[in-house]
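User: Here's a chain of 420 residues. Predict its fold as tokens.
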Amino acid sequence: MGSASWRNRDLLRVGGAQAVTFLAGEVVVVSMLLQAYSAGWGAPGAAAVLVAAALPLALGTFVAGPLVDRMSSRRLSVAAASWQAGVCAAGAVALVLGAHQAWLLLVLLMLQAGQAVAGPTWSALLPSVVEREALPAAVGRVSALVMLVGMLGPALAGGVMATGGAAAALAVSAAGLTVVALLATRVRVVRAGTAAAGAPAPRMLDGLRFVRTDPVLSVLVAGFVTFVLVVELVGVVLVLLVRGDLGAGELSYGVLGSVMAVGLVAGSVLAGRLPAGHAMVRAAVVGMLGMSGALLLTGAAQQVVALGAALLVLGGFNGVANVAAQTTSALRVPLEQRGRVLAAVSGVLRTASVLGLLVGGVIGTVVEPRTVVLGAGCAGLLVAAWTAFRLWPPGVDEGSAVAPASAGQGARDRPHDAMR
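Assistant: Prediction complete.
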């Protein structure tokens, strides 16, 4: 294990792999949305693209969790990235050969199926490449890197689509994912199969069972599920608020999205400076409260500048909450269950995201956008207050906030022999 500095080569490789994977996914999704628009698929087509991107992550992570705890992290990460690169390359070739554009949805489904395995694999590996005290900083830096690189996705997708179409976008993503597969082979720390000898085989719902019985994670996950629903509702109607109520143009809408991303990066870095333990639990609660207040400011904004300031604050507190929740989850879970639990949490949150998109599409047709945003802020305050009441007292799991790992952890969570 090492420090959270980028001089830690394994941390740089793990963070770089996650960032490039996220960028490749952004390029594919944005290019498919643009393709759906050009093909005249309309709103149903755009919805189909978004659902195809989210559904495998919502369902597949529950299946992937036991695999992450049973197999070598190197084998899984290389296989997942290679699968994703192959899917994108095959999709590009199929389009060049004249395949129907509807095949793009199948490509996206298979790509995200690979991500359902890759995501939990990288998340479970990250705590193994740094010391425990350095984990908050590592999570913060990796989250900031992913967001910074991901911000290039829409622009890169637009540029590639303008010059080479969807086939070129898939080819670019295939190249990026090939780099990820190569990076995965270079990570020296290997999280090997961690199931104890004689223990029952990992099961699909083990992660949810652990979360339900943990006094901190059960509350945090319940709170974050609600916040994902709230944020997705706002995301659906935000374009109506910006273009309709405020009369701003497309450029302003794009700039506002970038402003929120800047806040996410800043909040992620700030949260990474906090110590591990109960401070991280409190940071998650503060992030919820801050996001709720920022949503109220967003709903009350009467000018684009004021809306931009509110979204900057929203992104900042969102970054704090994300890093705090990820760090707390990683520290509280025993090594041998880390893959299943982190995958289950991801799956629950992705499911909430899909539901939020669907509900937001319905509510946005009958309720004014400003009312939806203000209502989301009020709902967020109630959830944040409940979460604070349950988790803020210092007597709640004070100290390390780490669930005990099984005996023999060091033997199974080890550097590879090639590590010098």
